[in-house]
Amino acid sequence: MTGFSDSTTDSAETVSSKGTVGTVIRSHAGGYLVYQPELDINLLCQARGRLKKEGVSIVTGDRVTLDDIDPEKGSGVITSCLERENLLSRPLLANVDQVIIVQAIHQPDWIALVCDRYLVHFQLEVRSSLPVLCFNKSDLASEDDKKTLRSIYEPLGYLVTIVSAITGEGMDGLADLLVSKTTVFAGPSGAGKSTLLNRLDPELRLKIGVMENDFGVGRHTTTSSELYRISKRQLRLLGVDEESVAWIVDTPGFGLSEFKHPEPLDVVWQFPDLAKFAVDCKYSDCTHLVEQGCNVLANLGQIDPTRFDNYTIMVKESQSEKTILRDTSKKVESTVKSVGGREGKAVHVPLLSGRYRSKAKNTERQQLKRSANLVEDEEDIALEETSDFDSSSGSSNNQSEET
Ligand code: GDP
Ligand code: ZN
Q1: DSSP 131
Q2: CA 20 to 30 Å from 241, out of 23, 314, 354, 388?
Q3: Listed residue (87, 64, 68) closest to 77, CA to CA
Q4: Ligand 1 contacts CB of residue 100 (under 6 A)
Q5: Residue 397: inside a domain, yes or no?
Q6: Is residue 250 part of a domain?
Q7: Whose CA is nearest to atom 6 of ligand 1?
Q8: Atom 19 in ligand 1: which residue has the minimum CA distance?
């Protein structure tokens, strides 16, 4: 944990600090820990009472103006919260510069569908920058594996970095990407995120509280988050200018099952290889799945089949979820009755009859069944395809998907 002892005590005087800006690196019951770059100090701050009254929410990553800074006590007061560039919902975090999606090449094997799910999710959440793809465990991969991964994602515009947290291969390149940025590390468990962060800066192991075992036991799983700064000494060791700052956030216990389904019509814009044909589709509400005359379908020959399969799976899931929500809300409406209806004074009460309850159960069952069908669909596709690295397109999907 970033301790309050990080605070330096350069000056014993209270700094007149109107307009001084800092970054919230942790929020907790007692207040906020704020890093002030000019003083290079962590300050324990309270928010002005007025902010609380106005209902201003302050989260990790927020840039805030400070007053009454006392470097000796390591304290200050937050007077306002500056406008956010973006807000990530999970982990709850403001002003994210980039997301690095970490996946193992092997052990566990890389899965194209998982990769696309992470890409879509974070492209929608952080629209200002494309996610970076970090493929870890390069020590277990062949040159062909690495070439295949690059050949799929680099032409789509993604930055691909291939590393080994064990041998250190590619780590300096990864460190370069972090300079002057706030980076979120996300990815399936087992991909090697903790090992990677520990390799970037061994002090992070203590701060993040990573346990020695592989099962994630003991790691914090709250929805709040904390910014960690890679030490200057460590940046120098990684060949980066030691005056640089690099902030990182880990996403422990955050898996695919927590992603919201995107709007069905938003999905295509997250697939650059489909989007370039979708712009010329004649229907504005085209799903690009079945429509006659769809420009994406007309150009399927130029799209990697696995990418199109993944697109199809994600759109169908989103459509299915929308249908379930619509059906459920219709059922709720039809189970409301009016009572005491004279002179417009009727009140609507829900009909909680046995019939209603059994319908709700049916809905629940339908939902489960539909999810199961989708999983079956994915398994069918998986079975039809050969191994990720054996196929000629190199991007098929042969593994069970982690959620
Ligand atoms: P996390 O769940 O993403 O945080 O993954 P961990 O960091 O806990 O790593 C999962 C397992 O992969 C551990 O047994 C690590 O030792 C191993 N691992 C991590 N990075 C590498 C790597 O670059 N090469 C190899 N061979 N194993 C790695
Ligand atoms: Zn279309």
Answers
A1: P
A2: 23
A3: 68
A4: no
A5: no
A6: yes
A7: 192
A8: 192
